[in-house]
Amino acid sequence: MIRMLTAQTTEVDDVDFAVAEILKQLDLENRLLKNSVGILTCYADFLEGGVIPALCDRLPFDVVGVTTLGTGTENTAELLALTLCVLTSDDVSFSAVVSESLIDDHENKIQAAYDRAAAALPGDPALVLAYVPMMAAVGGEKIASRIDKVGNGTPVFGTVACDHNFDSRQAHTIYNGAAYRDNLAMILLSGPVRARFFLGALPLNNVQKHQAVITASDGNILHEINGLPAAEYLRGMGLAPNDILESSKSMPIVVDYRDGTPPVIRGFYTFTPEGSAICGGEMPVNATFALSTLDSADVLLSARQLFDEILAAQGAVGMLLISCLVRSFALDTEPLAEMNLVSSCVDRTFPYQLCYAGGEICPVYDKEGGVSNRFHNFSFIGCMFE
């Protein structure tokens, strides 16, 4: 069984105070089990000033993580904060690793990192926790797909680094106190891992009834919809590409793979001069395509529905929770509303770590209960340890 410990600090400048505050909350001397690993999520300002390396130097285990917009635990939630979650167990083993830069030859470098982490485990990996860099050259879904392939379908749960800037210029992954722009950090788990996965997407009543078909694409590049260039198709619906991109909330795309798994949500990133759309994830040919909307009410409703499902499942000893960054943007003047809703729903029933993401990785279940790894946008995901 896995035990989860959580701690948080908002102290950016006083390194000694921040480290002492985290260590006091964790009480590692009395609570740490045989095997442990740390997961750190923080506002980008924590990359300066020395808190992260100083904290990692004091911990007797590896630490991986990402920058984020906001982060919370069962006790508190803040935008400008650092949260540390510790997974500790007597019978589950953890192996943490950071890859080489993924700017080139990313497939082989992900393979090498995975193999290195797997070799340190006493048994086959049962779960991968992935902390993915925000890169223009290699999209998050390509990285997630490669992890899925090298892991032979082992469940993958994780997040893409983000920050408070629209261009994500301060988004980093973290490994043992060092920050990386282009490197993948992972934790592989082996042993009796008991994990369940939850996905909260947009309310279906906000999805347009009209569904089109993706007729040409290349990975996350959407070339044609219903035989028309993507930009031309959108203009025909009264939507100018520039208007879509200028909206801070963007415009969710509901993509149904038509393979028995739930639809996934994608976002528009930009458009090419030829009229193709660069999207936040894979846009496979023959999948159906429908537009949706996202506002504050949608975010809070989908979060509440997700936690109704989580609490009904029972049995949680801890959870990793990840929400899409754009959901926070949709909350406008109440950016903590979703995190506060989670706190009120859980009410310290179990420990959790919550952060925002530039993309979410979470397995989905088919009708037979089989698991497929999938990359998401605009979603709220959860990994429940039992």
Could you explain the architecture of this structure?
The relative contact order is 0.17. This protein has helices spanning 15-26, 28-31, 51-57, 106-119, 140-150, 230-236, 241-246, 296-313, 325-330, 337-346; strands at residues 2-9, 35-42, 63-67, 71-73, 77-78, 82-89, 93-98, 125-132, 156-160, 173-175, 178-180, 185-190, 195-200, 212-218, 221-225, 228-229, 253-256, 264-266, 268-271, 277-279, 288-291, 318-324, 352-357, 360-365, 371-376, 380-385. Strands 14, 15, 16, 17, 18, 19, 20 and 21 form an eight-stranded antiparallel sheet that branches. Helix 4 crosses helix 5 (140-150) and helix 8 (296-313) packs parallel to helix 10 (337-346). Helices cover 25% and strands 35% of the residues. A hairpin with a 2-residue loop joins strand 14 and strand 15 (221-225). The model has no long low-confidence stretch (mean pLDDT 91). With 386 residues, the protein is α+β, with helices and mostly antiparallel strands. The chain has ten helices and 26 strands.
Characterize this entry briefly.
The chain is of the alpha+beta class and about 375 residues long. Helix content is about 25%, strand content about 35%. Strands 14, 15, 16, 17, 18, 19, 20 and 21 form an eight-stranded antiparallel beta sheet that branches.
